[in-house]
C-alpha cells in the first residue's frame, strides 16, 4: 500500500476509467473534484477523502478506503472505495433511462426485435 498516490493512477487502478491517460484528461478538464475544488492529475490522495466525478447528468461520489497503484480485478474494488452518491442523483439516471426508452430519436428506424420485447415487458402486454 502506498502513502499518498496520484489521483489519476488511483482512478485507473479502481476501474473508474479505462485508461490512465483518460483519467488524467478528465482531471485536467475539471470533472474530478475533492471538496468542491478541481484537482490536477498529480494531486496526492489520502485514505478517507471523498472524490466527486461529474458524468452528466449526475455527479458520483466515492469515499477512499485504501490506496493502490496497480489495476485490480473488479471483485476487489469494494475493498478500496465505496460509492456515496445520494439516492436522489441515482434516481435521475433511472428517469433518463426510461425517458430515452420511450422517446426514440427521429430517423432511427423501427424498433428491433429486442426493443419490441423490452417494450412489451415494460407495458406487460
Describe this structure in words.
Helix 1 crosses helix 2 (20-28). Strand 5 and strand 6 form a beta hairpin. The protein has a five-stranded antiparallel beta sheet. Strands 1-4 form a two-stranded antiparallel ribbon. The chain is built from four helices and seven strands, in the order E-H-H-E-E-E-E-E-E-H-H. The protein has 125 residues and is an alpha+beta fold. The chain is 34% helix and 20% strand. The protein has two domains: 1-85, Structural Genomics Hypothetical 15.5 Kd Protein In mrcA-pckA Intergenic Region, Chain A; 87-125, no CATH class.
**Share of helix, binned:** 25-40%
Please tell me the overall pLDDT: 88
Low-confidence stretches: none
Range of strand content: 15-25%
What overall geometry do the principal axes of the alpha carbons give?
Answer: elongated
Characterize the largest beta sheet: strand count, sense, and whether it forms a barrel: 5 strands, antiparallel
CATH superfamily of the largest domain: RNA-binding S4 domain
Task: Tell me the number of structural domains.
Answer: 2
Kindly report how far apart the N and C termini lie.
54 Å
The number of helical runs is 4
Please sum up the structure shown:
It contains four helices and seven strands; from the N terminus they run βααββββββαα. With 125 residues, it is α+β, with helices and mostly antiparallel strands. The protein has two domains: 1-85, Structural Genomics Hypothetical 15.5 Kd Protein In mrcA-pckA Intergenic Region, Chain A (Roll); 87-125, no CATH class.
Task: Provide the descriptors you would attach to this structure in a database record.
alpha+beta, 2 domains, 5-stranded antiparallel beta sheet, 4 helices, 7 strands, 20% strand
Amino acid at each position: 500500500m502506498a502513502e499518498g498516490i496520484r489521483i489519476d493512477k488511483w482512478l485507473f487502478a479502481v476501474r473508474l476509467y479505462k485508461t490512465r491517460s483518460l483519467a488524467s484528461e478528465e482531471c485536467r478538464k475539471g470533472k474530478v473534484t475533492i471538496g468542491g475544488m478541481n484537482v490536477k492529475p498529480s494531486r496526492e490522495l489520502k485514505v478517507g477523502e471523498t472524490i466527486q466525478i461529474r458524468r452528466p447528468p449526475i455527479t458520483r461520489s466515492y469515499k477512499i478506503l485504501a490506496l493502490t497503484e496497480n489495476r485490480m480485478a473488479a471483485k476487489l474494488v469494494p475493498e478500496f472505495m465505496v460509492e456515496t452518491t445520494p439516492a436522489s442523483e441515482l434516481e435521475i439516471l433511472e428517469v433518463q433511462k426510461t425517458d430515452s426508452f420511450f422517446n426514440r430519436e427521429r430517423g432511427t428506424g423501427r424498433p428491433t426485435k429486442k426493443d419490441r420485447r423490452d417494450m412489451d415487458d415494460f407495458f406487460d402486454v
